Amino acid sequence: MLNVTRPSLPDLEELIPYLEEIWQSGIVTNGGKFHNELEEALKSYLGVNDISAFCNGTIALLTAIKALNISGEVITTPFTFSATAHALAWNGIKPVFADIDPTSFNLDPTRIEEAITDATTAILAVHVYGVPCDVDAIADIASRHNLKVIYDAAHAFGVNCHCGSLLNHGDASILSFHATKVFHTFEGGAVVCKSPQDQQYLERLRNFGIINEVETSGIGLNGKLNEIQASIGLLNLARLDEAIAKRKSVADVYSEGLAEIGFVEAARESRVIRDNYSYYPVLVKKNSRLTRDEICARLLAQNIRARRYFYPLVSSFDPYKRYSNQEQTPAAKDIAERIICLPIFPNMTGAEINNVLNVLSSCQ
After folding, report:
1. pLDDT of residue 67
2. According to CATH, where is 3.90.1150.10 located in the chain?
3. What is the band of 337 on the pLDDT scale with cuts at 50, 70, 90?
4. With contact defined as beta carbons under 8 Å apart, do 202 and 193 qualify?
5. Where in the chain is the domain with CATH 3.40.640.10?
6. Which CATH code is given to the segment(s) 12-97+105-238?
7. Residue 231: which residues within 8 A CB-CB, separation 6 or more?
8. Strands (E), 187-344
9. pLDDT tens digits for 168-215?
10. CATH architecture of the domain formed by 240-362
């Protein structure tokens, strides 16, 4: 089966010395050597002043929301993975779903402003497929309405926008290091905060709110990244540029092949200065002979598991139906019904890519 992605794994021979050192030290978590080395390496690679590693991206997002003291209502997107809205709900916050821009698939700033109420305290935007949100427009809205801004940057590891690292925008940015991501630690995540004070408080919350052996401030949780995860991260980070270059090669072949296939169009957006090629989304045109789901079924019949990221919309899930309906977000509804993310990963072969294109061509 050709899945939509495949994790990049370091050579076992390279991992063994890390495991031996962990076994010899007896330190497997709680801010060990490799954990600290990974945080320093990530700061350098990502161009950020500080970063806090977590056991996964969802816990990272939950903790960031708590650290920023967000409450009430938060404006977010329905075109995302469920964890984005779940993190708000787990913190007792009402998600307010605003519509997306049909080109970038990110929150439409004009729709954000329309959704603001007296209860709104923040904006939780997602850099969908690693394409930067309109960070300047969102910053302007947040400033005028005294709102916090959190970016779900799960797709955006290493992405640069017009002014450098995308992670330096907003009050906090959250990364996912899940095995499906461009950079991964099997499971993992991280938070970058604008304020050093917020970053310090976040790190206390990551470790149960503990200040020292006799003091605890705030109700924290256990969000720590362990030493084996950190080791995987250090090895993967060392080869990440090579992996991204291979992803770009796959994307380039797709783009050339799709130019000859009339019923789909590549859904890439030009706001990215440095891309990570984490996804290859395509849109099925409205006049296509086959529906999106029929095309996905034909791909699956040839052992190609493309994915409908993100369908259905989060706002259609049972926990959120009372907050919204898809008629209030027509652009998101339209994109969700036509999107397909094609398989893409560093070691994808030419034969595998051509097989995908051949099946798509047969659907014309």
Report:
1. 97
2. 240-362
3. very high
4. yes
5. 12-97+105-238
6. 3.40.640.10
7. 15, 18, 19, 22, 34
8. 189-193, 210-212, 215-216, 264-266, 280-284, 339-342
9. 999 999 999 999 999 999 999 999 999 999 999 999 999 999 999 999
10. Alpha-Beta Complex (3.90)
